[in-house]
Amino acid sequence: MNSKVFMVLRILLGLFVLVFGLNKFLDFIPMEEMSADAGAYFGALANSKTLTLVALVEIAAGLALIFNKFGALLALILMSVSVNAVLFHATLEPGSIPGALVLLVLNILVLYGYKNKYKDLLS
User: Fold this and answer.
1) What is the pLDDT of residue 94?
2) Alpha carbon 19 to chain centroid distance?
3) In Å, what is the CA distance from 44 to each residue of 37, 38, 47, 51, 83?
4) Is 122 within the bounds of a domain?
């Protein structure tokens, strides 16, 4: 992958997750109405402080990707957040899945850009 393209994708993913991670603490992007099942699930995540952990992972990953420090590690960790976001939207809120799909695609592209960092891990 071209280094300039990879840098743009990495920074885009970093900004994307940084904004949504900060939003979980600062609430500057209003949430849309959710279905009852999605609201119950989201409420359980909030009450168990799981969303706080997800927000911290997103903020750490966003900063790591923007500044290119430990980006390969945090992109790998962020993959679990990306997959869970897609699964949440696919099963409980299908109308709002495009953002989660963008997150997943960006995450996969960034992982591909870091593929050389994972060679020892996968051998």
Assistant:
1) 93
2) 10
3) 11, 10, 5, 9, 19
4) no
